[in-house]
Records
---
Amino acid sequence: MSEGEDDAALSEGEEVANEDGQEENMSEKEEQIEPCPLTKEILIPGLSLLCRTGNGLAHAFVKLELKDRRLTDMALVSSFVHLRFLDVSSNHLSDLSPLAALTQLLWLKGDGNMVAGFRGQPLGQLTYLQWLSLALNRLRDLEGLEGLALESLNLIGNGIQRVSGLRYHHLTNLVTLELRGNKLETTDGIYLPNLRRLYLAQNIIKRLEGLGKLEHLTTLHLRDNQLENLDGISPNMKNLQYLNIRGNLVSAQRALRSLVGVSRTLRALVLSENPLVETEDYRLCVLSRLPLLERLDKEPISPEEKSEAQEKLREFNDEVAAEAQEY
């Protein structure tokens, strides 16, 4: 993902991840909810995209949009077994069990509902589901989450406090995980062997733990957390190319030592809005440790900066060697 795309995604996250507003909206929603089951009159106008069925002998609608229909129950959807794309966002749904019959489902958007957990939900039975978004629900953890074909998972703006109990052997194809705007204090528990992109902005993360298991990770987004150091960025993250730590509490240049282990692959680093950027020779200090970096705080690295950083590194090495000789 490019930095422009990354910023666009973050803007989307900023819009949906206002926790105080979310909780107020939930309270208001609960007070005003009236039972509203899905009916044919509501369902049929939302059908589209006529395609051949799996056996090729018939045709069926494979796309259904039921956004913002005040639904509290979608039992009727279980009769439409050929659906591949389903949008039930902005309703009052907490039970996803009717989806168990939709074995051809590839894409599911359920943002802005009342889903409180993955346990007891049928997602593990949807063997072709590749894209799932449950942003702005009531999730507190990821226990019970399964999806053998799942490639992208969006859980922005829930109340997730920890990542534990992940059945990683049931999530082997997951490459993108969105956890912005939750209540995580640590990265521990995110063991997903093939994960490529991890978005953790706008949590309350104070510790980086367990990241060494993410050997295939290329993008790590940690903007607007509470990190004071970068301990936990592991040399095992041997594919990391983009790291965003904007808006944290990193103040000491020694924190940069933690990035040396990923210096061979890291190409873009964002450290703006940390106290560290106000220190003397900030950019040169970063480049002396990360000589292959191409962009720092969204600004390209100039050839002059690279040369100056290399000279600074040589001077530093000479000083260290001289001190060693004295002893």
---
Amino acid sequence: MWLLSMLVPLLRLYLCGIKVLLYQMFNRTFEMPALPKQKGRVAIVTGGTRGMGFETARHLASLGMHVIIAGNEPEEGAAAVSRINEECYEGKAEFVFVDLTSLKSVRHFVQKFRDRSLPLHVLINNAGTMLVPETWTEDGFEFHFCLNYLSHFLLTNMLLDLLKTSGREGRCSRIINMASATHYAGEINLEDLNKRVVYSSHGAYCQSKLALVLFTYYLQEQLAAGGFSVTVNAVDPGMVDTALYDNLWTLAQMMKKPVAGILFRTPAEGASISVYAAAASEMEGVGGCYLYNGQKTQSSDLSYDSELQTKLWKKSCELVGLQA
């Protein structure tokens, strides 16, 4: 039973990966349409110091946005900001520290941002980690669950009023959640979100990505019901050659290296779906979508379970100390 609990999530995750690679083998990355200038708009991109996050921040700044890169590596952040500001004359970038494995740090980041009285038009919950060995955060949460999902849940909710007041009809604020095809392999056990019964890093990662998709749909429904000019979408970048794969098993690492250069997307290609969701005219007023390769795509059947969406929302509020 224990062995099955370990093997099943592993096999399901790698099966998802094979399906994505087969798709990428026969399908080109979607062509980004011309994007409108974004002068005067403010964006926060978590995990924006490298990889897809950096490419997302760079592209948004080139469109004229003021981009706040939120991350936990000050030296990397300074280098990223310097590079973006040297290249982009329309917008600008800056780095602000946040540790997404600490709810206290998330709250401190939000307070620092609020103190500046800036508007907020785009929030891209990009930061993530994958296949980390069994690790618990200072708040007692499983590492993937906290960094990939729960901290972004808290961050989004604490910034939601700013997003609401910054958006207007015809010029909505936009929230983008970084999903993954691995959510198709994900399962949610509300009684064991921290995977304490049987730990599987593969299962934990898939769960965190499914949680983000469930969160996306529930929040969009609430915002639409309230008539707010804020949209929420989940984006899937495909398989991208970034440091996310550094924790693969040695054999998987050896198999990945020759494949990555041929079939994996570059960080810039992976970032294109986030940039599209954040800035494209075609996405104005459009929310509650799962976007893959520039198309609205059907996510997993489980992600549309409205009862599960509601239960996860309430449980997440309880865990971070928010009113449901």
---
Amino acid sequence: MRCFTHPLLRRLLGLSAQSVPGGLSQSKGPICSPKWSSLRQSCTARPGLVTATDAVNYWQKVFEINGIPEARESSEYIVSFVLGAKTFQSLNSKSLYTPLTALQQEQIQQLSNKRLERMPVQYVLGEWDFQDLTLKMRPPVFIPRPETEDLVSLVVEEESWKCEKNSDLRFPVSVPHPVILEIGCGSGAIALSLLCKLPQSQVIAVDKEKTAVDLTRENAHRLQLQDRIHILHHDVSHSSAKQLLLWGPLDFIVSNPPYVFHEDMASLDAEILCYENLDALDGGDDGMRVIKTILALAPSLLKDSGNVLWENGCKNVPPTHLKIAV
């Protein structure tokens, strides 16, 4: 274990500058904090020593020394989570400067140790927000990224446009509730967000990974949306359209498919390579492995002028929107 003489560390541990070893060992492991049992003892002897702000600053320093990306954000999310808040900025001054309990310190250390192992914060906390939903997260199920929210917004906009177009007709026709197929549901972020944004919709969510299907089902039950979603453990690359037509022709096919070129996979961050399902990212030699399957199935699955929308990997390019004439 390495020690460092940062003033905050000395204050957290109740040590003087002279009592901290000056030499650093040449350990090949991470530069870890001393166990927080010492911190708890110090806190008992000196009430008011360790606050949420102290803990954030301390763990930020530990993360930085160990080369953990987004060190400040990681530290803030962990401390906020232990204190029951979404963000560090949402904590009031009382929460920021009230001494942490021994249990809170222990929880912060346990979560921070996971982050030191390059576990993504979403997995460390076991939950993450997407749109207005708080979803359970666990490895190796793919973590939804902020840009995927644009895909949800695009589906909602397209459905709103359809409804407006119909209402402008001299003799509006009855429009059935939209039926949406999501291919590769992961945690259920896209499917469940669409159910909330489009209250009359129905979603069929499929994924070939059982861990993803189970997590989507868990999140659907937590959000009380299980009655409007059909979750299938299913590999569309080995299916026929007939298996997916039990719910009738579809209004939308949506997906955040694997689109990373296979040759680029090795250059992904350690957080991804060590914890996330790489098959959910690897798009093959041309990045189109799953996208080709979706496009092949679309004509036989969609209603007239149905829509296929998927996220792509091009920077500064919005999700791809394709209308299929059948």
